[in-house]
Design brief:
heterodimer; A: mainly alpha; three-stranded antiparallel beta sheet; 10 strands; 55% helix; B: alpha+beta; Ubiquitin Conjugating Enzyme; four-stranded antiparallel beta sheet; 41% helix; ubiquitin protein ligase binding (chain A); TPR_ANAPC2 (chain A)
């Protein structure tokens, strides 16, 4: 056909010839050309000739057909072969044809429909086969390449389809024509977009585009990312650039618009959810302990929102697009929520590492403050993790306790009202209550050595340092709170109007309060008393400052009346200090000297004393008149009793203490009220004779002071400072338990002290443990402990198996590795353990059980009327549980005293 | 803090409440009685008398169960008797009420187990009772044990037994054995 003659090349001409003979059936062929209208013969009934030719419809149809043919030929898109070279080479009649066709609306519609069809056919034949991958799910790895390929393909076909039109538009001579053509082009573009969208699976396309956009945003972020600068500026300056995204291309090929917007929205959502919160700029601040959330909000509104605006502007071809403030906040809120979720997931770890992780806790706080409904979720997430990681047999009780203190701290930070804390602390508390050692650990932690805020030399399994630190802190706070008479307290507030009579205006909702609230106060006090006793006996501070403060703390927190025993104990040790001053056994060495006024003053007890009894102490040292004169100096008289004056005496030259020590042994005795102290170790053994003498002389003086109390020496509790003179060295051990001193004394070669010397240390023979046990009438446990101690100190060595001798010179060591067993050996405590106490009083308990079962009939162990409860009721000293009762019953069953019948125990008939 | 401790102790308080509700007699016994009974129990347990034992029956310290074995060389030899002791609120100024739970054939014990014994009656002016505050559970039980071997036939509650004691010891013993039930058998019957 003639139109295709413009095509260069033989092949196309051949085609033209072919199609001229066999015209194509569809209307895409420019039909009028193939069937030329040669006109119609005038009908005979018509006048022939003349100039006034009437308007001829046939003529119009011919013109229309020709124009159609020309236009479609210009636009046609051959399926096979290259698309013809679009260029300025087109015939001038094309313009006319378009003007003719596009002017009436119907023909323009027809032409548009035709062109849409033409594009569709070409698209399906040439482009779609190459996009076959869209019909299957797109793997993420292939998404980017597929996306790029698609965009390129679509771009190419877009150029193909529209270059003809564009050329026309460019060469249009009048603006009217141009406008007409542009309108046509716009419609054709729209048709093209519809075509593209309809021929690809939309959902898949949208998701893939979203994914690719996210990838590109990430790339953009990583290109504009400089966390170091950001951290210096305390503001994130990283940004996402919209020119990293092929937005305008997408828009051009028809993937913009709604689909593109949706994909972009998906991408932004994922960006906020996954990428932003993991960015380095928004990591937990460990250095400053600040929340990063304000920074995140600012970054979103200042850096991300403009990017979104710009991108959406391009996608929707509306360049003045603006986000509302609401939208900006919405984006920021999404990011904050996501950050909150992220932090919540690892909240357990943050709590575990509190206080370094305060920043993270503050993040969560910020998050829940903007979204109160999330509180319960945070709690439940935390409790789930806690169940899995903390509340089982794995962790030690001290670990759980320190976690508990951390939980208290961090959740109080999260929620000052303590509602969340109550929620999460519940499971920990109920779990802690199931652990047997919790109370004793808490008690021990309360008293653990804490000189300067450091917990030193403690067994990590028995003491929880976190609590110790808390106690030292809290007691100070508490002391401040109790200064009720602090008139200059500008923060004083009256008690709340609804406060009960027991209300204490203290800020004592602190960790100590929570710890003390863990247990029944009585049980707790009992345990604390035991630990306190141990502590008081070993304390070196004559003022007992720490212990006093602690008891005051307990009195303020717990029921003060229940702490009577603790107070008595404290008073006992304090009284002992002054008692030692008064009954100084050293006095007997200085009898010839008249006493100094200071000594007399020290001898006057606080509760007053009569002249006679006071003078009795000094009568063989000074004259009565002289004594009275001195007494007036240091004491005031009220009702025949003398009380010490509170004035300070002028300093006297203190006599060197060594002078006395050379002659005697410094001896201090603590007088304890047995009823109020926990049961003590009562092992008895032979003391070195000096000690025994001193004990008895102290006893005499004590009763001479008019004391009604009976003294009973607990030798196992005594502690001695031992100095050993060996051939090549000098060993000094401070605060050695008396049994160790006794044992080493038995090895002494000088001044054999034992009158009944059934043990004679012979360096050649050595001594065996049995000999020592017999000679000192000491229990094996203590002898072995002492031997191990001195061997560990390299004072004794094993001469032969089980035979010990003094290691006079270190080079005498036979090369046997010194046994450092002292560390591993279980420390023998002065206060008896519950177990030992149970064993000691087992016979009595067993008698009771026997009587109960005989007279009350068979019983079960548990239950309201069971053996345990009955024992507790009739025997206040029985403070054990069912475990112990079962043990006792087991022992009795072994001796055939009781029989078991299922759960019921009965006496043997 | 205060409310937390309050919540903690409320559990135990409720528990005590339940206890006292279950034993209305408890408030009647004051602390001194309980203390006295506890020390008596301790004495009984630490220095037991052969053939005698006593122990509180339940949560109420003022109700005890006791076991007495019949003295040898009497018709009651090798028989075990259960008794209940109930202490009044003004104990030890008033005697405990003692009853035989095990059926016993004895001149001074009636069919309901009540015992006629001078020390179980309140003493004082114009009364023939011989109770005194220096007596205690142990001495009461010892008296009852010796009463088994030496009945006071002058004031019998069971006249037939008093007559038979004097006339026919063999028949008496037969009656005693017929009336006696070993406590374990009674318990077994109760359980069944």
């Amino acid at each position: 056909m003639a139109a295709t003659a413009v095509l260069s090349g033989v092949q196309s001409r051949h085609d033209d010839v072919f199609t001229s003979v066999f015209p194509q059936a569809d209307y895409t062929t420019p039909t009028p050309e193939s069937t030329p209208n040669i006109g119609v013969l005038a009908s005979p009934g018509q006048p022939f000739g003349g100039f006034s030719l009437p308007h001829n419809a046939v003529e119009d149809a011919v013109r229309f057909n020709r124009a159609w043919s020309t236009a479609t030929r210009h636009l046609s898109l051959p399926i096979s072969g290259d698309i013809w070279q679009k260029g300025p080479k087109f015939r001038p009649e094309v313009h006319e044809a378009f003007i003719l066709l596009c002017s009436p609306i119907e023909s323009r519609k027809q032409l548009e429909a035709w062109y849409a069809n033409e594009m569709g056919v070409h698209f399906r034949h040439c482009v779609l086969p190459e996009l076959g991958e869209w019909q299957q799910p797109v793997p993420l790895s292939a998404a980017l390449s597929l996306f790029q390929k698609t965009v390129i393909l679509l771009q190419k076909s877009f150029t193909q389809y529209f270059s003809g039109l564009t050329a026309l538009i460019i060469s249009a001579n009048t603006t009217e024509v141009r406008a007409m053509l542009i309108a046509f082009e716009a419609q054709a573009k729209q048709n093209f977009h519809v075509l593209v969208l309809n021929s690809l699976p939309q959902q898949r396309l949208q998701k893939t585009i979203a994914y690719v956009m996210l990838l590109l945003m990430k790339t953009s972020l990583s290109h504009n990312n400089n966390p170091e600068i950001c951290s210096k500026q305390a503001e994130c300056r990283c940004s996402v650039k919209s020119d990293f995204l092929p937005l305008d291309q997408l828009q051009a090929v028809g993937l913009g618009g709604n689909l593109g917007e949706r994909a972009f929205a998906l991408a932004v959502h994922k960006l906020l959810a996954r990428v932003v919160v993991h960015r380095q700029c928004f990591q937990v601040r460990y250095d400053t302990s600040e929340s990063v959330i304000p920074k995140l909000r600012r970054w979103i509104t200042e850096r991300v929102a403009p990017f979104i605006e710009q991108s959406l502007g391009i996608l929707t071809t509306n360049l003045s697009f603006k986000l509302t403030d609401n939208d900006r906040n919405g984006f920021a809120q999404t990011a904050v929520s996501n950050l909150g979720w992220l932090r919540t997931a690892s909240l357990f770890d943050y709590v575990l590492h509190w206080p370094e992780t305060t920043g993270a806790i503050l993040d969560i706080k910020e998050y829940i403050s903007s979204n109160a409904a999330e509180k319960s979720r945070v709690c439940s997430v935390f409790m789930n993790i806690m169940d899995r990681r903390l509340l089982h047999a794995g962790p030690q009780t001290t670990e759980i306790l320190s976690m508990y203190t951390n939980v208290i701290h961090s959740f109080r930070l999260l929620d000052t009202k303590g509602v969340m804390l109550e929620k999460v602390a519940g499971p920990i508390r109920s779990y802690l209550r199931t652990r047997d050692d919790t109370v004793s650990i808490i008690a021990a932690s309360f008293l653990a050595d804490d000189e300067k805020g450091d917990v030193i030399n403690v067994d990590p399994a028995k003491v929880c340092p976190a609590i110790t630190v808390e106690v030292s802190k809290s007691s100070l706070e508490d002391a401040r709170d109790h200064k009720m008479l602090d008139w200059s307290d500008m923060h004083w507030q009256p008690d709340p109007i609804d406060a009960g009579p027991g209300y204490k205006a203290s800020k004592s909702e602190d960790v100590v309060a929570y710890i003390l609230g863990l247990f029944d106060p009585e049980e707790f006090i009992k345990e604390v008393t035991t630990v306190l006793a141990q502590h008081l006996l070993q304390a070196n501070d004559p003022e007992y400052v720490k212990e006093t403060r602690l008891i005051e703390l307990f009195k303020s927190r717990l029921d003060a009346t229940k702490l009577q025993a603790a107070e008595v104990m404290l008073k006992d040790v304090r009284d002992s200090v002054s008692l030692n001053k008064r009954i100084n056994p050293r006095a007997k060495f200085v009898t010839d000297e008249p006493p100094k006024p200071r000594e007399i003053q020290a001898a006057i007890p606080d509760e007053g004393i009569t002249t006679q009894s006071l003078y009795k102490m000094f009568e063989h040292r000074m004259q009565h008149a002289q004594f009275l004169a001195t007494l007036k100096l240091v004491a005031t008289r009220r009702n025949d009793l003398y009380f010490p004056k509170r004035t300070r005496l002028p300093l006297e030259p203190t006599q060197p203490a060594e002078a006395d020590e050379a002659r005697g042994i410094d001896n201090r005795v603590q007088v304890l009220s047995g009823f109020f102290w926990p049961q003590m170790r009562s092992n008895d053994f032979v003391l070195p004779p000096h000690f025994a003498e001193m004990d008895s002389s102290f006893g005499h003086r004590f009763s001479a002071l008019g004391n009604q109390r009976k003294l009973h020496f607990r030798r196992a509790l005594a502690r001695v400072t031992v100095e050993l003179e060996l051939e090549d060295r000098h060993v000094r051990e401070v605060d050695v338990p008396a049994w160790r001193a006794s044992v080493i004394d038995a090895f002494a070669t000088m001044e054999r002290p034992y009158q009944d010397a059934n043990v004679e240390y012979d360096p050649e023979q050595g001594l065996t443990a049995e000999q020592l046990m017999e000679a000192l009438s000491m229990e094996e446990e203590l002898v072995m402990d002492a031997l191990a101690f001195w061997t560990g100190k390299r004072v004794l060595y094993q001469k032969a198996p089980a035979t010990f001798a003094v290691l006079e010179r270190l080079d005498m060591d036979t090369g046997m590795a010194p046994q450092r067993t002292t560390g591993q050996r279980e420390v023998i405590f002065a206060v008896m353990s519950q177990d030992a106490m149970l064993r000691e009083s087992a016979p009595m308990f067993e008698t009771f059980i026997k009587g109960m079962l005989r007279d009350g009939g068979p019983k079960e162990v548990g239950g309201f009327m069971g053996v345990t409860n009955m024992l507790k009721m009739v025997l206040p000293s029985f403070t054990y549980g069912e475990e112990e009762v079962r043990w006792l019953l087991g022992e009795m069953e072994g001796r055939g005293e009781v029989v078991r019948n299922g759960e019921v125990w009965a006496v043997t008939r | 803090m205060a409310n937390r401790l309050g919540a903690m102790s409320s559990a135990s308080a409720a528990n005590q409440g339940a206890k006292s509700a279950g034993n209305p007699s408890r408030p009647a016994a004051n602390g001194n009685v309980i203390k006295r009974l506890q020390s008596e129990l301790m004495a009984l347990m630490t220095s037991p008398t052969p053939g005698l034992s006593a122990f509180p029956a339940g949560s109420d310290m003022t109700k005890w169960n006791a076991t007495v074995t019949g003295p040898s060389d009497t018709p009651y030899a090798d028989l075990t008797f259960k008794l209940t002791l109930s202490y009044p609120a003004n104990y030890p100024y008033a005697p405990p009420e003692v009853l035989f739970k095990t059926p016993i054939y004895h001149p001074n014990v009636d069919m309901a187990g009540r015992i006629c014994l001078d020390i179980l009656k309140k003493g004082g002016d114009g009364s023939e009772g011989a109770w005194s505050a220096v007596l205690n559970t142990g001495s009461v039980l010892l008296s009852i044990q010796s009463l088994l071997g030496e009945p006071n036939n002058a004031s019998p509650l069971n006249g037939e037994a008093a007559l038979l004691w004097d006339r026919d010891q063999t028949e008496y013993k037969k009656k005693v054995l017929a009336r006696h039930q070993e406590p374990e058998d009674v318990e077994a019957a109760d359980v069944a």
